Each structure stands twice: as C-alpha cells, then as structure tokens.
UniProtKB/TrEMBL annotation, chains A, B:
This is ChbG/HpnK family deacetylase. It holds the Pfam family YdjC. The keyword Disulfide bond does not apply. Its cofactor is Mg(2+). Residues 1-20 form the signal peptide. Gene3D superfamilies: Glycoside hydrolase/deacetylase (3.20.20.370). PANTHER family: CARBOHYDRATE DEACETYLASE, YDJC DEACETYLASE FAMILY MEMBER. The keyword Ion transport does not apply. One of its GO terms (biological process) is carbohydrate metabolic process.
Amino acid sequence: MKKSILFLCSFSFLGNILCAQNLNIAERLGYSKDAKLLIIHGDDLGVANSQNRASIKALENSPVNSASIMVPCPWFPEIAAYARKNQNVDFGLHLTLNSEWDFYKWGPVSSKDSVPGLVNKDGYFFSSVDSLQMQGTAQEVEIELRNQVKKAYKAGINVTHLDGHMGAAMSRPDYLEAYMRIGKEYGLPVLMDKRVYDIPNDAIQKLLGPNTVLADKILSASPATFDAGMEEFYTNVLTTLEPGLNFLILHLAYDDDEMKAVTVNHPYWGAKWRQADFDFFTSEKCGALIKKQGIVLVTWKELRDKIVRADK
Amino acid sequence: MKKSILFLCSFSFLGNILCAQNLNIAERLGYSKDAKLLIIHGDDLGVANSQNRASIKALENSPVNSASIMVPCPWFPEIAAYARKNQNVDFGLHLTLNSEWDFYKWGPVSSKDSVPGLVNKDGYFFSSVDSLQMQGTAQEVEIELRNQVKKAYKAGINVTHLDGHMGAAMSRPDYLEAYMRIGKEYGLPVLMDKRVYDIPNDAIQKLLGPNTVLADKILSASPATFDAGMEEFYTNVLTTLEPGLNFLILHLAYDDDEMKAVTVNHPYWGAKWRQADFDFFTSEKCGALIKKQGIVLVTWKELRDKIVRADK
C-alpha cells in the first residue's frame, strides 16, 4: 500500500499536486485513509538540565517520538550537542518569546537593541504572552524567530518542524504570518490546526498550500486534567483517539530540586506535572495501549520530507 | 579598644586621613593590630540553583560570611530576590565576563551590539579569559561591568563589594583600571591584594588611596590541593592563618544532578569540589577550629562602611 501510493505520486510535479488534493495526510505518508496518526511530542527542551535528561530518556526508551528545543534557554547548548550527534531523533524548535518562571530567566538570541519591544525592564523576555502582545511588533518577532532558527541550524540541529512556546508566536495574526513565512522559507512544517482556515487574513491564507501540514487535533493536559489525574487523562486520550493527524503535547522532566526551583509557585506545568508526563509515557501500560489501539506513531520528519518538501 | 579608636578617628576628616596612614585595616575596624582577619567567601552565586541553595544554607548556618553574585547568569533573579529580602547578608558582585562550562551558557547583560568583542560566535561570553583578552576592549569591559552593577542595584541588592569571576576583570591593566574606577565611583571595596602597588601604570596607581582596602592574602583551593584532599587543605589554611586581612574563596554547591551537568568534563571546580567546600565549612570541626585559632571573621560590609566610605 505504502509503496504503490508513493509510486503513483512520484510520476511528476502534477502527480504530487493531484495526490495532495485527493489524499489525506495519512495516505500521503503511506497509511490507510482512516489511520489514527499520533505524534507524541515533548516541549521545552533546553529549558533545564532536568528537562533535557528526562526528554532524552523518553525519546530513547518510550513511544515519545518527537520534541522541540528552546533556542534562547541556558541549557540549549546541551540539547543542541545531543541533537547534532543524533540526527535521526526528531527535533523541532519550540520558538520562544517568553520567559515565564519567577526566578530563572532568559532573553532573546538577538541583540536586545534590535528587539526592544520583546524585553522587559530587566532585559528578559516578558513572563506573559499578554505583555509581549502589548509591546512586541511583528517585525521584532520575525527578527527574533529568524535568529533562533539560524542559531539552531548553525548548531547542527536537523530541524524537523517549528512550534511555539506558550503559543506566543501564533498569538497575533501578524506574528502568525511571520511564523508561517519562516516555516515556508525553510521548508518546515509548523504546528497549527485547521482553524487557521478561519482566520480572515489574506497574507495568512496565501501562505497555505497543498503541502501545508495541519493537525486535526492538538491535545494536551490542562490544569483540570492534572487535578483529576494524568494517568486517567492520557489513558482516555489514547483510547478515544480519532483518525487523522493528532499531536499530543507533553512536558517531560523530573520532579527534582532543579525543576522544583525552576517552576516554583507554579503548581500547573510544574515539576510534578512533568514527572507525571514522564512516568506515564515511559510506562509499560502506555506502550501496550498504543499497540492495542492501533495507533500509528508518525514524526515531524516524515511530514517534512514526504509532504512539506514533496515537490523539492 | 574598638570604641576608643573609632572615637579618635571621628574628630575630623584630617583625623581619618591620619588614622588611615597610621593604622592597619584591623585597627581601623576596631581590632588589635595583629588580628587574624578572615572573610570566608562563596563565589559564583546565581550560576545554578544548586549553588544558590548551598550558598544560602552555608551563609545562614556556618562561618561562611560573605558571597558574590554573577549578574548575567540564569539564576540571578533567584539570588537577587533573596538578597533583596536579606539586606544584612554580605553580598557583593562576582563581575562576570566569561561563560566557562561546556553545555550551559550565558552572555552579557548589555545589548550584544554594544559589546561585540565580549561575545563568541554563538552569542555567549567566551569560555576562556585568554579569548576575552584577545577580543574585548577595555571600553566594552567597562560598559558591561557598569551594566552589571546597575542591574544589581536595580534589583535591590545591598552591594558590599566587587570581585571578578575567573579574575577576568583584573586580567589586563586596562580592564583592572575600569574595575577599580567603578568600585571607586560606587564607594565599594574591590578585591585586590597588595601586588597592585607593583603595577607600573599611572592610572591604576592614581585610583589607590588611603581608603583603599587591599587583602594581605587571597587564599583558595587549587587542583593540587583538591587532589590531596580539601579537608586537609582547609584545616591547614585555618591553622596557619597569619595576621592581616585574609580572603578565602570558596565555591559552595551540592554534588547533585544539576551541578554535575553544569560542570561536566571539569573535574576541578566541579560538583564534588563544591560539595567538599560546603561539607568542610558547614562542619562542627571548622567552627571549632576558627574559634580555637582566634580568627576574627570580618565582612566586606564592615570594610565598605568603616574604611572605603570612612569619609562619607
């Protein structure tokens, strides 16, 4: 099945376009039309040593099959060195415009003078997306996002996709346009779902095309599901997964001294939350459930190479 | 004794000058001429959460009585918040021009465009002092050091002194001049010893005066003493301490996952070294030895207020 579709599609550029129009993402990757595709994705790599260690362990020993890196963070050099040596591990960039923790901070990759609207009075990124939106121009956002992508390539990372920390890079139409434009220029899928079609903005609509990858569903734990229990939530996610491209966002770290200090005063998305993500996805139960449910694990690398760069 | 000397010295500005010329540092602080003064000082606060936690614990529960903070480091906001709330704890600034660890990095407080000679191709401070010396102008060093001092005051730190990470700020005569000038302007003692008198540089000699505080001896562990055993080294330091102003440099942190990762590939000044410093100086043995040897613990705050700012 996989081979024959690829064969049909490889005849010509026209063939690709026709395929793109007629086949859904699952089929274009070589799976059945109604396959339940899932990317199990770790966010926030580079933020802390604890996050790097736990995420690497999960990527090497669990169904977690993709992750994204925060280029401006202090531990970026550690995860960049790992990514450079492990070109087949699926690493994207968690494009970062905020520094949200109370006592541990970072700022832009760009020279601060070139992006004054992205930094607070202490020279760090703003804690909240709201503050960013009030101060940062789309031009500054684009400068900074480009510099993060350039730095990642310079560090030798085989970048498979772009997504955005705290959704900041997608939080205003003009930021979203910059984010999509950079993805397009580098031939990278960018995390978005199909609601992007509803945005009444010509520039954004023009950046969509037959090789744009859009998720059917973006799933993640919430404060309510954390309070109710992570195991129950993730079990439910896996047992009720629907056909289409599903993207599940995790935050993998240990509930250790460093992570407790990084996330102090933040019970949600804190050290216990991250340990719970790690515990469930490295459990035997999780692996067995994925198998039982017939879930097809796919990576951003496949989406990048077989769809976004299909015509290259 | 203490009172009478202060009384004599408080008559007039002239009195202070005469006192400064005739009395040594111990006497100016109110101790006997041959007192064995000691500052037990933790370096590198702000570099990591482990360093902050261990240093705070030692400052609160041991003879360690002074420490200095690295303003450009990611954990600066944590130690700055502690310093703001604990104005009587003796905190200086560990002025920083290098980022020496392999996989965990920071850069200048200043906008990078304003100090291009201080950053490497990845936008971080240079790993080595040698590289800094080859690229960084004294003007750039002065801009960055001033911005670190300004940021510390803005954060509410009661700055008691200046010293320099890896000795970088004192590693070239023109850097040293900037470092001394900033100390003078802010009325802060800066760590130097009496060899500064031997530097054939008019600008540096002009920055010295009767209220300059110079250490008689700056003591610290070395790779050789680490290999031979830290307990033996520090026991020897305390039992052979000579009269005068002695400054003992420690690096207090835990041998935990974070610190191991920060200092990976660096057996010296690494996590075990820092744990050994912490263990000895928080031990009962250390406290008893200081008492037995008649060592007088003094702080930079005393030196700042009673000597450097004597005429203010």
